[in-house]
Write the structure tokens for this entry.
Amino acid sequence: MSTFLSKEVLQGLEEGRRRGWQDSKRLRVEAGSHRYAVTRAWDGGFALNAHTAPNLRGLVDLYDGSRHLKRCLIIACEEEGDELRYELKVVNEATDQQPVDFERDPDAPAGLIAKT
């Protein structure tokens, strides 16, 4: 059995993942110690309820449930009906690993067993 996926299939999977992220009802923004539910999201931004969210600016964290998705710098805010729309200037994907300043050998062992 082949594990190769065509470019079209990979694009479809990526599009589905992006739509799932945008349609998620668990999406929220954290600014400092405050949390706000995201009502709608798109590639370049997100919207919050205008009645519960303040005019946010600066660095915020975007979560899907308990999973940290992105750290974003938001720059613009406009009110449209019952929504405050925010645009993303800088987006950094959240990872569970610390960044390193050297190249890791792909054949390096996962750990060492010491002699006893």
